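Repro:
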Amino acid sequence: MPKDPTNDAVVGRPTMCRNCGSIIGAGQQQCAVCGTRVGSAANPSLETAPKDEAMRFARAVLNRPYKFTIALLVANIFVFILMWQSSGMNFSVLNFFSYDVLVAYGAKVNYLVREQHQWWRLITPIFIHINLLHLMVNMYSLWVVGPYVEKLYGSAKFVVFWIVTGIASIVASYLTVLPPDRQVGRLGSFLFKTMDAPSAGASGALFGLVGVLFVFGIKYRRELPEGFKRAFGTGLIPMIGLNLFIGFVGRGLIDNAAHLGGLVAGAFMALVIDYRRPGERSGIAITWRVLQFACIALSLLGFIKAAQHFRDPLPGYLAQQKTTLEERQVDLPDEVKNFVAYAKATTEAQEAFNLAQNRNDVSAIDGALTNLQSAPQLDPTADQLRNQLSSFLSRAKELETNTSAPNQAAKNALNNEFLEWIKAYSNWLRTSGPNYGLVEATEAQSPQP
């Protein structure tokens, strides 16, 4: 067969697509994967081009800064610490902040938005979390997803994405709260709620970022290296589907309307907004810079308004609702209620242990042991962790009461065992949390005051 040096694939020798790196068979006129036609530039030297192109693209994009992702992490943690301080800095409240604290810091409550025109409650919930696990899961998700969006689109657009999709998620949550006498059914409960409970969390904005990356991967699939195609676009479908399925299982705790609102808003914005391609100058249009500062200013204004109303008494309607929530504990699945009771008992036990070890105060140990043993059974690992913690409490009490002088070596050894227990307990929370409705990227409603 004659050889044509301008087109090896046409005359009978396989070559590699210069766009996506796929093998183009002998005699084929175009790549079967991406559709790129075999041109005169196709020659053996191009076999390394896709890899080099992918590396250039990755270096150009991934070396960009992501300072506003870090700024959002710091802002969310700072607000959480303020809420903890307002709750008395007690470790037990980290299971769930009280109804009053959530409302005071700006959680979304439809009655206050609608009747008292507290519009800032459509913004402040983006920075509020109802408990420590809620904060940790969402901040971990932001740390994973945020840098990609900020590096691809730039800091100004990233901030706009975060605030706009976050507001869209809160608005979606607001619109799906129905009167208490409405019957929504099993499927309807996925989106609609009949209890106007305080709602907060960054996960609507996180879903917005996922929506941005989903559309980004599809919209620019012809110019992205293969690795980026697999990571974004249709590669995100399993993750999105899994979170929506978990949202259906955990309906009543998870605000699925907020998740979908953020996802749709992020997808729409990515459809009309371009990303910053490799090699483009870092300067941005003045319009985006103005929008960035406007979003930051709007967020600050929201918390200023919340501070002005911080000590407002609850209206009669909300005080009655709070009492109802105390009585009903909100209509959560039994497994979630059991997990909350177990987590509360373990937190109180840890607090009692720290008092004994650090302040020689054993007064809280007996009560913590009683609560720990009466907490619901969850799974074998949880029972093992409970028994170990009970042993730590008993040994800590014995060290303080049965010796004439503190045995520092024994206390240090017990502390080391306790630190190992903390690691095991944290791992159990991370791996078993989804079984009890505690999932990544959740937009939570307060399940108890």
